[in-house]
Automatic annotation (TrEMBL):
Domain named Enoyl reductase (ER): residues: 9-320
Organism per entry: Nocardia xishanensis
Coiled coil segments of this chain: none
UniProt xrefs under InterPro entries: ADH-like_C, ADH-like_N, ER, GroES-like_sf, NAD(P)-bd_dom_sf, Zn-ADH-like_protein
Protein name: NADPH:quinone oxidoreductase family protein
SMART domains the record matches: PKS_ER
Highest taxon in the source lineage: Bacteria
Membrane spanning residue stretches: none
Amino acid sequence: MRAVLCENEDLEGLSVRDVPEPIPGPGQVLVEVGRAAIDFVDTLIIRGRYQITIPRPFVPGNNLAGVVVGGGPDCARFSVGDRVHGMAFVGAFAERVVVPESQLRPTPAGLTSDIACLTGAPYRTAYDSIVSKGKLRPGEDLVVLGASGAVGSAAVLIGKALGARVIACASTQDKLDFCSQLGADEAVLYTRPDYKDALKTVCKDGADVVLDMVGGDFSEPALRATGYGGRFVVVGFAAGGPARIPLNLILLKGSSVVGYEIADFERREARQAAQNRDALEEMLGSAMLTPPITGRFDLDHAPEAIRLVAGRDKLGATILDLR
């Protein structure tokens, strides 16, 4: 079968090769991939900058939608021909991938493969972070740092659907314009010198929830712009590293800072995660959410697509169409 092969940490070294088809083991199924979403986290894994290191060579790719074509011993949840979607962590940028049954969900009839592959990490992360960690309530101010990317654009859409006032923060005006098209109520450049003051101006009583995918020097000003009892949710560090936050800010504002990592959340809070998945798929299937798919590539052009996402200039979601 054909797949993207990662042999080193150089994105320029990615290639599409013929590789052996994987064989499912106990509790695993073999999925023919129809669509796969390319996320910024995939680029971190490829470059060896993620918390978990994968031995090379390997096939990258996490979020997928496809059809079950085989199963290993003890498989009970799915049968050959079932439409499924979920997360493989690695392996999805290929014609076929082996995935544990526990990491897949049946794809409802009303959910297209395009949308189903996006219900993986980006939309799950946004929904879990906003609802379960941020405890967002209708009418509250939601600040999204890194609002133009896959997770950020999902957060803008979800926040609006849940009745929040959404303040999108991004690094360029083009990105902010994109967020405004998605429905963001306010847009703020986090690269401007008066970024903190600009946030305080648009959030007159302070932000209620901040969703931070950026980190670095941009986190502390956003925390300072929260109101009393604000919830600051740490999701990622696209700017290059975690922020150092003075704890006195937490004390003075009565704030809470919580972290979110998708694998731990699904393992440790499995019941809440399952409820969130049902709610999210209902929102997507009913067109309450319309993900902005702004890039579509075939497998031959997957290395180019991955490099595009890694550059952080890409807006919205990028998917591979393998069928």
